[in-house]
Amino acid sequence: MAATSPEPHAFGPVRWEEIEPPYIYGSGTVLRPFNEVLNLTSGQLRMSVAHLKPGQDVDHHDHYTMAEVYFLMRGKGQFRVNDQLIDAEQNAAMYFEPGVMRSVVNNSDEDAWWLFVGSPPDVKPAGTD
Questions:
Q1: Angstrom distance (rounded) from CA 87 to CA 5
Q2: What CA–CA distance (Å, rounded) separates 129 from 62?
Q3: Among 2, 14, 49, 56, which one has the highest count of C-beta atoms within 10 angstroms of its own C-beta?
Q4: Which DSSP helix (H) or strand (E) runs through 33?
C-alpha cells in the first residue's frame, strides 16, 4: 500500500491588528510577526509587517543565515543598507543577503507599512557571543 501524504492546509486570514504581542522598537515602530498565526513554524520562512509613523525606524541589524526581502506596501521611506540610505516609494522592494546590515526609516510625513520576508530563519553559529 502506498503511503499517503497529509492533506494540504491553509492558515488565515489573520489581521495585523489582531497579532499579539507586538514587538515595539525603541523608535516606537510596531512590528507584528505572522510566524505563529500562519503556522510558519516549519523552519523555512519568516514574515512580519511593520507600521512606521513619520520619524520612526527599525533597528539597524544583520542576520547570520537569513536572507530577507523588504517590501514597502504603503507610504514612502528609505532602505538603510550598511551605511547607505536609499529612497523608497510604495511598491519598492530590496533583497538582503545574510551578513548585510539592514533597516528601514520613515523619513516622510506619512505612515509607512513594510512587509519583511526572510528565509531560512536565522541561526547563530555555535561559539559566537
A1: 46
A2: 14
A3: 56
A4: strand 30-33
Is the domain covering 34-105 a CATH 2.50.20.10 domain?
no
Alpha-carbon distances, residue 102 vs 4, 34, 63 (angstroms): 43, 20, 9
- The number of residues making up the chain comes to 129
Q: What does the alpha-carbon distance between residue 73 and residue 120 come to, in Å, rounded to a whole number? A: 22
How far is the C-alpha of 100 from the C-alpha of 115, rounded, in Å? Answer: 18
How far, in whole angstroms, is CA 32 from its chain's centroid?
9
Residue 70 CB partners (closer than 8 Å, separation 6+): 79, 93, 94, 96, 102, 104, 114, 115, 116
| Residue 75 DSSP class | S
Cell of 7: 492533506
* Cα angle value 20/78/113 (rounded, 5°): 30
CA distance 79 to 41: 28
Question: Model-level pTM?
Answer: 0.86
The tens digit of pLDDT for each residue in 42-92 reads 778 899 999 999 999 999 999 999 999 999 999 999 999 999 999 999 999
